[in-house]
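Replying to the earlier thread about multi-chain prediction with a worked example.

Input:
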Amino acid sequence: MTDLPNVDQGGLSWLDASGEHSDIVLSTRIRLARNLQGHAFGARARVNDRATVLERVRKATETVPHLRRAEIRELSDLSANGRRVLMERRLVSRDLLGETEESTGPLSSSGVALPPDVPLSVMINEEDHLRLQALNSGLNLRAAWDLVDLLDEELGQELPYAYHHEFGFLTSCPTNVGTGLRASVLLHLPALVLTKEIGKVLQGLSQMGLTFRGLYGEGSEVVGNFFQLSNQTTLGKSEEDLVDHLDRMVRQVIQYESQARSVLMRDASAVTEDKIWRAYGLLRYARSLSFEELMNLLSGVRLGAGLKLLPGLRVYPLNKIMIFTQPAHLEDAAGRELSPAEEDAHRAAYVRSILSTEGRIFNDEGSDDAPTESTG
Amino acid sequence: MTDLPNVDQGGLSWLDASGEHSDIVLSTRIRLARNLQGHAFGARARVNDRATVLERVRKATETVPHLRRAEIRELSDLSANGRRVLMERRLVSRDLLGETEESTGPLSSSGVALPPDVPLSVMINEEDHLRLQALNSGLNLRAAWDLVDLLDEELGQELPYAYHHEFGFLTSCPTNVGTGLRASVLLHLPALVLTKEIGKVLQGLSQMGLTFRGLYGEGSEVVGNFFQLSNQTTLGKSEEDLVDHLDRMVRQVIQYESQARSVLMRDASAVTEDKIWRAYGLLRYARSLSFEELMNLLSGVRLGAGLKLLPGLRVYPLNKIMIFTQPAHLEDAAGRELSPAEEDAHRAAYVRSILSTEGRIFNDEGSDDAPTESTG
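Result:
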């Protein structure tokens, strides 16, 4: 994308599968909700409040170390597709886009600040005045917390946060009051789904104060066996406790998933291998793919990569496929709007291009070729 | 197969896609039903009759030019799997195997004579004393008729056929009385099926005195969009008329199929291409395939080869896949019995081996590789 030339990897460094357990954990995210004293927040914020908040953040980027040289993008300055690209990269939330039944675009003075060299983003005038977010590859809660905590401290020295001595940080929605913290980890749990243990696991996590969502956060469905696991409460515990608790739980889930993978390979290796290679075959050659089908097939192939059944395949290109086959990314790459049929065709073409390049690097040359693809 | 070392291409020369229209027509078959005077035939034939018939045919191979050097195989001398291999190659009928509810093997003195160098076979003591068959690649009714007619004449000089001056050749089943001729053509009609015109076409053919069956002849279901088209009547017309009539009708059907293929490419090229490449992807990588699924996928890939959408792929290897992935052929290659799950795994492995070799020859090297396959 040409929209973020100054941001490291276009804001996608969390995608590179460099973090711990990245065969099972796609990414770690921690966000803090903050509001500024003296300005109405949430639904009560007026145009004036919002404009002032944006201005104050803009000013802060001159002095706050972690925001220095950050690009501030006002959402109304971007095309509708450009905004969606940011959302698909998980740099801004769906809410910030302002695409609701009542509205077709962002509210005034909505924006995002993206530093060039650290995996941070600050959403401005979302549900709260500020949403500070750190986004890392793999399971990396401690690093994400340290980073966002530092930014929070630096920013708090410039901007007067709304804080109550008893409740903690004040937020637009009461569920965020207290630490304002939500830590979440995006997990790929295909084996727990295949062995039908996922329900039990999620139930247990819910009893431990955790909640799960789909790929796009609140209200989104689970696709491709990706589960976003996060803390439910933000009040009454320290940030470190919340983060440590989630970390312990996630490690437990990773262990369950690993065990389920072993069980699959022990009790149903033929069926599992067949399933994985079929998914690979379809991704490799299909001429049309919906995003949902893609995610389901990708889930199989990702499992295959994790189980070393597709030994030439790295996780990073698979992660890339997830991001770059989303609708706004496909339109961005095409440089124009795409009809639904065109979108599915472009998606399939992108997947083929990645898988054939990926194959070429690791392939036992010549043993596994295909007929020449028609270019007509 | 080691069973037919002296027969050209193991009796599979009809498979090599050398004949006319071989992208649509797999093969042409003409058979003549004959019985010998002085011996009861059909269900009334006793062990003695059958033994004498076999002996007389054996003797005839010494003098009849087209049977000279023919191998005569008595079915009871073959293993059950060896018999099924012959059936899967369409050199003998299912009936000759004698695998009915009452019986687990062939009746006494059942046999087949296979000349080494011409695509002929003579079944002995099937429903009739003799079934003379010529089997050719592609659409080739005239050549098949000439060949089987010659054999019939030669054999008739040695053996006294049961013949009635009014009815013609006498046969066990009244539907064969007269010429005793059945000419059939095995057609691959995927586009007529996809465009849902097949019903209308088959209905029209039925009004023209033709009938259709599946891959294995009478009573077998249509799989993989292969239709075996043949004459219904054998009485009251000359052999040449029957053959010419079928030839005209088949050419008409080929034209319908070609038109339907053009329509598909005009109105639904994206969907068709996607379908074909998906079929290819599954065949290329699946680890387990039932014969029925294989045939359905192969039908798509065969259509793709015909439409030049899979330009590296020849029809001959696809024909080979059809034959060598049948159960008896898989067991024959494995040298042992296979469980159903093993059979599906061996089938998939065979398909992969053929498609990867086939791809290698025609492939734009390096553009389309896959991850190294696990050999574990």
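Chain B touches chain A at residues 270-271, 273-274, 277-278, 280-288, 308-313, 341, 345, 348, 355-356, 358-360, 362-374 (CB under 8 Å).

Feel free to reuse this layout for your own posts.
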